[in-house]
Amino acid sequence: MKIYYEDSMPYAAEFFADLGEAVVFSHKTIDAETIKDADVLLVRSTTKVNQELLHLATNLKFVGTATAGTDHVDIKYLASRGIPFFSAGGCNAVAVAEYVLSTLFVMADKLDWQVADKTIGIIGAGHVGTALSKHLSALGINYKLCDPPLQDNGDSRTFVSMQEIMQCDVITLHVPWVKDGVYKTENMFDKAQLAQLSDGQVLINACRGEVLNNQAALELFKEGHRFQLVLDVWENEPDINLELMPFTALATAHIAGHTIEGKARGTEMLYLDLCQQLNIQPNKELTDYLPIAAPSDIALESTEPFWQGIRNIVLDVYNIADDDRQFKAQVDGGEQFRYIRKHYPIRREFSAIKVNAGNFVNSKAIYDLGFL
Ligand SMILES: NC(=O)c1ccc[n+]([C@@H]2O[C@H](COP(=O)([O-])OP(=O)(O)OC[C@H]3O[C@@H](n4cnc5c(N)ncnc54)[C@H](O)[C@@H]3O)[C@@H](O)[C@H]2O)c1
Ligand SMILES: O=C(O)[C@H](O)[C@H](O)COP(=O)(O)O
Q1: Three-class SS of residue 62?
Q2: E strand or H helix at 80, and its extent?
Q3: pLDDT (tens digit, 9 = 90+) per residue, 150-208?
Q4: Could you write out the DSSP letters of every residue in 287-303?
């Protein structure tokens, strides 16, 4: 069995070696000819999976993406050929939640406000939105959820309307890129929607670039609007609108989900799916491969005020301001955008970090955030 996997999938060689002949490819060079003998195709979001790529692959019986988003895959085409498709929903939800938490503390420093005083509006309450809401609950930070598909489907949580979300101090987007239909998300933040944001209000996009009209944001900034825009994802990646960059409060290269755990979990999820499809008992797991985190210990002083301690510990593990600085200094076009993503340094999740909370005022919150 020939298993083709994208080179950005951590531990794919280890997970898939025993299941067949595992062959690595780069999204930059993959084409129909390269994978024409594939039985299994495993990708991340950088490989477009469609008829053009797959029309010669007549043996194909499994396609998987080790990502939450599936907009790079023509799922209808796969269904028309009866090829089972798998994705890794939830693999990086915690990574994105931690990215947003870091953003909140960095924005609080920048704008001189307290995270504790703010209400966070979460649009999209799936894996990421839920992981974020749990982190906010752990810290007692107010939040509101907006997710009409889940609400219409009877999800028992409390949801608010888009109008109510627009009143939140911080709004963070965690929806899939949906191009049409009742729950369309493409261009959800168009010029009219963006224009409703007040100066100082924070808008974070860490889902898909096409949900927020980048050109419209640029025009509004040029017209004098001063909402605080935090972008991890961009329209038309990797050829992003560089003119928008100086107007962003924080900008990163689509790396919100790029913890080692988040990426590797995606690989593991596809391994488990493939084992199930092949009716094989899985005999490997992520913990066989994950490196020991460094630093592995953080100590909290018992005298440290609660919010100061939480801020410091969150930013010790991941400080988005560092990524923002490097990204803005380095990116000059599509090739560089790709390069930065590909060479993104290993980031760890809170769950890999041991904390000695000692007599810190509310150590439960630390462990509820996932720290060991
Ligand atoms: N930046 C990154 O690195 C990164 C990482 C993970 C996921 N993502 C993106 O974020 C998206 C969300 O990830 P997830 O794992 O939570 O997916 P998910 O499918 O678990 O959740 C998405 C939620 O959005 C809701 N939704 C759909 N249409 C909506 C609408 N019109 N209004 C409000 N809510 C709507 C859905 O009902 C669902 O609950 C992914 O599709 C992916 O594109 C980006
Ligand atoms: O959808 C996802 O899971 C994320 O956007 C993911 O981080 C994309 O990462 P990539 O596959 O482009 O490395």
Answers
A1: strand
A2: helix 75-80
A3: 999 999 999 999 999 999 999 999 999 999 999 999 999 999 999 999 999 999 999 99
A4: GGTPPPPSS-EEE--TT
Instruction: Count Cα atoms within 13 angstroms, Cβ side, for 332.
Output: 2
- Rounded CA separation 253/233 (Å): 7
**Alpha-carbon distance values, 361 to 305, 310, 315 (Å):** 7, 11, 19
**Positive or negative, the Cα torsion across 148, 234, 271, 29?**
positive
Q: Which residues are catalytic?
A: 208, 237, 254
List, in order of start, the domains of the chain with CATH numbers.
Answer: 2-87 (3.40.50.720), 93-251 (3.40.50.720), 297-368 (3.30.1370.170)
Pairing of strands 250-251, 119-123: unpaired
In angstroms and rounded to an integer, the radius of gyration of the C-alpha atoms of the chain is 21
Task: With beta carbons less than 8 A apart as the criterion, state whether 55 and 74 touch.
Answer: no
81-106 pLDDT, tens digit per residue, is: 999 999 999 999 999 999 999 999 99
The whole-angstrom separation of Cα 53 and Cα 62 is 14
ipTM over 0.95: yes
288 marked among binding-site residues: no
Residue 238 CA, ligand 1 centroid: distance in Å:
20
The answer to whether residues 258 and 344 touch, using CB atoms and an 8 Å cutoff, is yes
Q: What pTM was estimated for this model as a whole? A: 0.97
Ligand 1 in contact with 124 (CB < 6 A)?
yes
CA angle 18, 21, 22 (to 5 degrees): 85
Q: Give the Cα separation of 314 and 369 in Å (integer).
A: 10
**Residue located nearest, by CA, to atom 19 of ligand 1:** 126
59 contacts 81 by C-beta, under 8 angstroms: no
